[in-house]
Write a structure and sequence with these properties.
Elements lengths: L37 E6 L2 E6 L3 E4 L3 E4 L11 H4 L9 E3 L2 E3 L9 E4 L2 E4 L19 E7 L12 E3 L8 E5 L2 E6 L4 E6 L9 E3 L8 E6 L3 E8 L2 E4 L5 E2 L9 E7 L8 E6 L8 E4 L46 E4 L8 E5 L5 E4 L36 H10 L12 E3 L6 E3 L8 E4 L2 E4 L4 E5 L2 E4 L37 E3 L8 E5 L4 E5 L5 E6 L7 E2 L3 E3 L8 E8 L6 E5 L5 E6 L8 E2 L5 E3 L7 E6 L4 E7 L7 E3 L19
Antiparallel strand pairs: 1-2, 3-4, 5-6, 7-8, 9-43, 10-11, 11-12, 12-13, 14-15, 15-16, 16-17, 16-18, 19-20, 20-21, 22-23, 23-24, 25-28, 26-27, 27-30, 28-29, 31-32, 32-33, 33-34, 35-37, 36-37, 36-44, 37-38, 37-40, 38-39, 41-42, 42-43
């Protein structure tokens, strides 16, 4: 064994036991402070500090990234413990180490390991640059009397086919500007637009539409005609039900039945006394596929029998509140149609067919436990997900042990957890991913978020429907939410950022970090965007900003302080490249909640970063030296259909 050189460590001991003044405490972890990137676990009455996933204990004193402890020498722990630089490495005696430098020219570094660039992330541009240029501020596009911007990521689209793009922003008013920031049209209302607008030619007739969901339970669709917004015939449509008119907070679209028309899916915050999920045709009527005897939508319904939710599998379906971009679309089974994935505030995630019925989970594994329907199947949306895989195995498969609940184990809460569909393991079949918050105790306390990846319903995989994807049995976890972070929506982006064949998942979290996880559930890196402040972060855009074929990660921060807003650009290995303060105005929220949109706005061949801020403003930055060669996840929810289908979602 060769010697190991150790840099300065500023963390405390990694293993401890504790006791009260009388020599005994019910909770041995009480009062214990563990090193960064670890948590205290009660193991046989002893408090043991256990490192987070992707981190290992070093000499019982500190948690360091796994890449910091190869079986070789020259490990500079001081470099490892620098959270912004621990992905920088070089080879010493053919061994990856954590000292300043770089990998060989044919490799790149992630989390202390050099990866061969055998499969480029995407094609390089015509004139690649070694460095990412600092974005240059172009202009502020003012939007008087439109009020706060929420998670409504802007769109930049050529609406009339004249070769020039228009900018679409939605606040409490929908506004369209030209590329120079001149207002062209607006439609005003006094109700919040929470989710990103959908922009598409819904009927393939050459007329572009803009779909908007807003508070008051409305879904609007506008056509772009003669240089302005006009109400489309058949719209708006209401999602009011059971005497309640709940806010529409999720909006996505896709041609779910492959008939060349694009359907619109809306989710709202309705409680358990009415439906939360609506699917509309382009003309505003409710979507109804041929060949079924029941009304397909909305869901859940109160019908019994075929297509009914009230008595499905005996126990029925029950939803509650979709509070934050809670809808995704994609193909997760063997038919040719697309499925609709919805997450709820009652610990459920469901997968709907386009006829409104729910996909059944793996009948060889999941079944009902006890009661009148013992042993009957469970659909995706009929059972609570728990963080601990053993709890799910005991409860839903083996039917043994204590009945689970938040009094003693973490359950998954999907209150504002946007789902995505992706092929994470490269087998040609899609999985479903999302980040529920882990709750425990009463009243419920969120201690972290967990990244859950679930199999689709494919015969070639043994119909492992709703089961944890192999390798993802133990869920990667984030940290404790920051007080005052303001409810981060942990919207994941599935993209290839390290140059292998499989996607990584990048997502913000309320603990003050932006995370990247590999396809094997390992944490690649976690960037500390909070820097000790009470701020949250937007969904990330993932785009190549210097035409070298390797993408960068672009996102923003927000908070109550006037200086909370920052535009942040990271390398694919999580290193800070640029951080720019956003122009602020006094308000209850300042900065960027909505995902950036990265696109060539003015047609000059270079990219702009378009930001819709909380302060009723659009900000535009130009990135010198950029090209349109690699737009992997260029806007909120991957695309202007806002359905979460990125480049690694297999299309039927």
């Amino acid at each position: 064994m060769r010697s190991v050189r150790i840099g300065m460590v500023v963390l405390i001991a990694g293993m401890a036991s504790c006791s009260g003044d009388d020599g005994w405490q019910p909770d041995p972890c009480q009062g214990v402070t563990c090193p960064s990137h670890s948590s205290c676990q009660n193991q046989g009455g002893t408090a043991v500090c256990t490192c987070d996933g992707g981190w290992v204990m070093w000499q019982d004193t500190a948690c360091i990234p796994t890449g910091c402890s190869p079986e070789c020498d020259e490990v500079d722990v001081g470099e490892c413990l620098d959270a912004t630089n621990f992905s920088v490495c070089r080879l010493v005696d053919d061994c990856p180490t954590m000292v300043a430098g770089e990998c060989p020219s044919d490799q790149h570094c992630v989390n202390g390991n050099c990866f061969h660039n055998e499969v480029p992330t995407c094609d390089a541009g015509t004139n690649p640059s070694a460095d990412v240029a600092e974005p240059v501020y172009v202009r502020q596009v003012t939007a008087p009397q439109v009020w706060t911007g929420w998670w409504s990521s802007p769109a930049v689209v050529d609406l009339d086919g004249d070769g020039a793009k228009e900018i679409i922003g939605a606040f409490y008013t929908v506004v369209v500007w030209d590329a120079e920031g001149n207002e062209l049209s607006r439609i005003s209302h006094d109700e919040r637009v929470y989710a990103p607008v959908v922009v598409a030619d819904l009927e393939n007739d050459g007329i572009m539409e803009i779909a908007v969901g807003r508070s008051g339970a409305w879904v609007d669709v506008y056509e772009w005609r003669d240089g302005g917004l006009v109400d489309k015939a058949g719209w708006p449509q209401s999602t009011c039900a059971a005497g309640n008119c709940s806010e529409v907070r999720g909006l996505a679209a896709a041609d779910i039945d492959h008939d060349s028309n694009i359907e619109i899916v809306a989710t709202n915050t309705q409680g358990n006394d009415g439906p939360q999920v609506y699917v509309f045709n382009p003309d505003g009527t409710m979507f109804q596929p041929a060949g079924i005897s029941w009304p397909a939508w909305p869901r859940y319904n109160v019908l019994t029998g075929d297509g009914g939710d009230a008595d499905a599998n005996g126990i029925g379906h029950h939803g509650f509140g979709c509070y934050g971009l809670n809808v995704g679309i994609g193909d997760i089974n063997d038919d040719d149609d697309l499925e609709i994935i919805v997450t709820y505030d009652n610990h459920h995630i469901n997968a709907f067919r386009n006829d409104g019925t729910s996909i059944t989970s793996d009948t060889s594994y999941f079944s009902q436990r006890g009661g009148d329907y013992d042993g009957l199947p469970l659909d995706w949306g009929q059972f609570i997900r728990y963080i601990d895989p053993q709890v799910e195995d005991d409860h839903y498969h083996l039917h043994i042990g204590e009945w689970p609940g938040p009094s003693w184990t973490y359950w998954a809460q999907w209150t504002h957890s946007p789902p995505i569909v992706l092929d994470i393991d490269g087998d040609g079949n899609n999985e479903v991913a999302g980040l529920p918050n882990a709750e425990i105790n009463s009243p419920y306390e969120t201690h972290f978020h967990a990244l859950m990846v679930l199999d689709g319903d494919y015969a070639t995989e043994g119909n492992r429907s709703a089961r944890r994807t192999p390798g993802w049995e133990t869920l990667p976890q984030t940290g404790m939410p920051i007080d005052g972070a303001g409810g981060v929506v942990p919207a994941p982006a599935a993209v290839n950022i390290i140059g292998d064949e499989l996607p990584e998942i990048v997502a913000p979290d309320a603990d003050g970090h932006l995370y990247a996880w590999g396809p094997d559930a390992t944490q690649l890196w976690a960037y500390d965007y909070a820097q000790g402040l009470q701020v949250g972060a937007s969904e990330a855009a993932v785009v190549d900003l210097n035409a070298d074929g390797q993408p960068e990660i672009i996102f923003g921060t927000y908070g109550a302080a006037e200086d909370a807003g920052r535009l942040i650009i990271l390398s694919s290995s999580g290193q800070l490249l640029h951080e720019l303060p956003l122009t602020q105005s006094s308000g209850s929220i300042n900065g960027l909640l909505a995902a950036p949109t990265v696109v060539d706005v003015d047609g000059d061949g270079t990219l702009e970063i378009v930001l819709l801020t909380a302060n009723d403003q659009i900000h535009i930055y130009n990135v010198p030296g950029s090209e349109e060669n690699c737009l992997l996840w260029p806007t909120g929810r991957a695309n202007y259909l806002r359905n979460g289908m990125g480049p690694h979602a297999i299309r039927p």
